[in-house]
Amino acid sequence: MSNNAVSLYLDPQIRDWVLFPITLVMILVGILRHYVVVLLQSPPKVVSKAAMREQRALTRSQILRATASNSPIPPSYYTSISQHLSDAFASGAYLKDGPPKGDNASAPPNPITDPAAMDGMMAGMKTQMVMMVPQMVIMGWINFFFQGFVLIKLPFPLTLGFKSMLQRGIETPDMDVRWVSSLSWYFLNFFGLNGLYRLILGDANSADSSRDMTASPFAAGAPAAGPQDFAKLFKAEKDNLEFSEGLHNWVGNDVENRVLRKYGKLAPAY
Amino acid sequence: MSLQSALQELSLFRRNNIRKSQETFNKGLVVLKAGGTAKLGEEGWAFLEQLALASLDIGRIDIADQCLLQLAEKFPGSPRVDVLTGIRMEATESPSTVLSYYDELLRADSTNAAAWKRRISVLRRMNKVEKAVEDLNEYLDTFYTDVEGWLELADIHSSANQYTHALEALSHALLLNPQNPFTFLQFAETAYTAGDLPLALKMFLVVIDMNEVEDEDTIPLGISVRAWWGTKLCSRQLVSSQTSHESNSNTPVPKNIKLIDELATERVLTAYSGEHGIQARSLVSNWMSGR
C-alpha cells in the first residue's frame, strides 16, 4: 500500500498553475455573476389595483372558510358575508377585466401571448443565461487545457465508489481513489462553493449556479405558479363556500353553559 | 444614558411596534448626536424613519426634516420615504395640499397601500366622512387582510351612529383576528349600543370564555371586569323585562339567563373586593340591589 501511495508524484507547478487558477477563476466568476444578475434584475413589476384585487379575492373566502367550524361571528353575519362572496364569484365581480361579457371567457389565457407572463419568463431566461454561459466556458477551458490532469490527493482514504466522482476524465481502473482529476475538481467546486459565496456576498446571493441547474427558466420569474384562470378558480371557490356554510358553528352557540360550568354554576356535561 | 442602551431600547420599540414618541425622541436624539446612524449600518435607516415619526408626533419638525433629508438622499423614489414625506407635510401643510400629494402618489402606483391609508385618514380629518368611508371600502375590498382598516371603518361607522355597519366591519376584523379578545369586546359593546342585547350578551360571554387565567377564586382584572359588567348590564335587562327582546341577528336569549345574571352579579362584586376596589363596593352593591 505504501508503495502504491508514493507511486505518483505531482509537480508543484500543477498546484500553482492549475489547481489554484481553477479555484480562483470559479470564485471570481461566481462573484461576477452575482453582480451581473443584480444589474440585470428588472424592478418589480407594478401590479395594477384590479389585478391585485383579483389575486387576493381568494384569500377572503379562504379566511372565511378556515374559521367556519369555529366561527367567531354569529350565523347571520357569516351567511351575509358568504352570500356576498359567492354572488361576487358567480358574477365575476372580482375579475381583473370586470365581469365576463359573453360566453367567450372560457378560453384559458395563453402564457405566450400574455405580455405580463412573457416578462416574467424573459427575466428567468436572462438569469439562466448568465448562469449557464460562464459555466460552459470554464468547463471548455478545463477540458481543453487540463484534460486528464491529476491535481490533488485527498488526505483521507475513500472507497471505490467515489472513483467515478473524483476521477472523471481519467480512464484508469487501478489508480488510488484519493487522486482527484481536473474535471472532478471543477465539479467539486461547482457544487461546493456556495458556502464561500454566502460568506463573501451575504445570504441572498445569486452566485451559486448549482442551485439554478434544477430550476426551469419558465418557473424562475413567475413565483405565482404561472398565469391562473381566475374565472375557473372562483367558480370552484363558490362551491367550497356553500359547503363551509353548512359547517358553520358559532363559538357563541353554547358559550353561556361553558361559562356557567367553568364557574361551577352548572353540573359538568360529562 | 449610554448610546448602547439607547440603541437597544429603540430596536425593541421598532420590533414591538411601540409608539412612546417622547421616549423614542429622547433616545433617538442621543443616537443622532453621537453619529450612531453610520454605525448601525442597514438598521440605521429604519432608525431614521422611527425617529422622524416620533419627532413629528411631538412637534419637533426640524429633527424630522433632518431624518427625512438623509432618507430621501439614500432612497430616492422609495414609496416608503414618499409616504413619510406625506406625513411630514400633514404636520404643516393644508389638508388639500397633502391630499393632492397623495393623489399623485396613487396615480404613480395605485397599489401603494400606505399612501392610500394616509389619504383616507386625511379625508376623515377634513370631515369628509362619506368620501373616507367610500375610499376605505374600496381599499378594504383590495387589501382585505388589513385588520387596522376594518377597525377604522367600524370606528367611523360608530361615530356616525351606524351600528349595524360597524358590526359588519367588526365581524370582518373578527374573522381576520379571532384570537383577540379586545375585538370581541368591541363587537359586544357595539352590539349593546345597537340594542341587540342577546348578541351582546353572547359576545361578552365569549370574551370571558377566552380568558383562561381566570376562574372562580381569582379576582377579575382588566378586560374581564369590563366583560363581566357588560354581561351584568345585558342579563339585568333581559331578566327584568320578560317581553321578547328584538334581536337583529336572531340570536336567542339563553335559557338559563337567571343563572348568568346571578353569576355576573357575583363576579362584578368580586372585582370590587380587592384593596383598590373596596371603596366603590358599596356603590356597586347598591346598584345591584336596586333594580
Automatic annotation (TrEMBL), chain A:
SMART domains given in the database record: DUF106
InterPro entries named in the record: EMC3, EMC3/TMCO1
Identify the keywords attached in UniProt to this record, alphabetized: Membrane, Transmembrane, Transmembrane helix
Topology relative to the lipid bilayer, per the entry, is: Multi-pass membrane protein
Q: Name one GO biological process term.
A: protein folding in endoplasmic reticulum
What is any Pfam family matched here? EMC3_TMCO1
Task: State the function annotated in the UniProt record.
Answer: The EMC seems to be required for efficient folding of proteins in the endoplasmic reticulum (ER).
Sequence similarity: Belongs to the EMC3 family.
Q: Which PANTHER family match?
A: ER MEMBRANE PROTEIN COMPLEX SUBUNIT 3
This protein is called what? ER membrane protein complex subunit 3
Species this protein is from: Psilocybe cubensis (Psychedelic mushroom)
The organism that produces this protein has a lineage beginning with:
Eukaryota, Fungi, Dikarya, Basidiomycota, Agaricomycotina
From TrEMBL, chain B:
Going by the UniProt record, its keywords in alphabetical order are: Endoplasmic reticulum, Membrane, Repeat, TPR repeat
The UniProt entry annotates TPR repeats at 147-180
Matching entries from InterPro entries are given as: EMC2-like, TPR-like_helical_dom_sf, TPR_EMC2, TPR_rpt
Judging by the UniProt lineage, the source's domain of life is Eukaryota
The scientific name of the source species is Psilocybe cubensis (Psychedelic mushroom)
Keyword Magnesium applies: no
Q: Where in the cell is it found?
A: Endoplasmic reticulum membrane
- Would you tell me the protein name for this molecule? ER membrane protein complex subunit 2
Protein family membership? Belongs to the EMC2 family.
Q: Name one Pfam family in it.
A: TPR_EMC2
Primary location recorded for the protein, binned into one broad class: endoplasmic reticulum
